[in-house]
């Protein structure tokens, strides 16, 4: 008898009032993730749906690949001040750069690449062992490469922005 495979997902929920282009942030993020589909270094999106929360507010639920390894930020903070071994840094860096390359080839810029937005997902290596691969997540601030940033603010997390982006509010 065949058993059905179980897929664990994370559900990202945002209120509909957080809008971008008359769509919820999660709806926009779903559109971006659909266009980036197929890269093993980008978190997978399984779809989404509109629902109403207990307060009657419309929300968009985004179903994402479950990252059981947590975030890269969490992994580093739990290293007891020792940091990560050089081999792990090389492994995660390679994965991060493969994802960034794919995102750019699809004509997008992430705009919020932080340690918190790099999730660790288990994968089986060619020799049969399991390791964690770093995948980019949180595409709510992503933009097309030719798209001009609207408004007076910058995109991204302030701790990770360059000084000129913070001081001059300039971003390409």
Strand content: 25-35%
Number of strands: 9
CATH level-3 fold name: Transferase(Phosphotransferase), domain 1
Shape label: globular
Going across the major beta sheet, what is the strand order? 1-5-4
What gyration radius follows from the Cα positions, in whole Å? 18 Å
Average pLDDT works out at 79
Count, helices: 4
What low-confidence regions span 5 or more consecutive residues with pLDDT below 50? 16-23
Summarize the main sheet: 3 strands, antiparallel
Structural class, by secondary structure, is alpha+beta
Q: What is the oligomer described by this structure?
A: single chain
CATH-assigned homologous superfamily: Transferase(Phosphotransferase) domain 1
CATH architecture group name: Orthogonal Bundle
The helicity comes to: 25-40%
- Number of individual domains: 1
Features:
single chain; 172 residues; alpha+beta; Transferase(Phosphotransferase), domain 1; three-stranded antiparallel sheet; two-stranded antiparallel ribbon; 4 helices; globular
Structure description:
InterPro entries: Kinase-like_dom_sf, Plant_MAPKKK, Prot_kinase_dom, Tyr_kinase_AS. This is Protein kinase domain-containing protein. With 172 residues, the chain is an alpha+beta fold. The protein has helices at 25-35, 72-77, 86-105, 163-168, and strands spanning 9-15, 19-20, 23-24, 45-52, 58-65, 108-109, 118-124, 130-136, 143-144. A three-stranded antiparallel sheet has the order 1-5-4, with helices on one face. The protein has a two-stranded antiparallel ribbon with strand order 2-3. The protein has a two-stranded antiparallel ribbon with strand order 6-9. The protein is globular. The N and C termini lie far apart (56 Å).
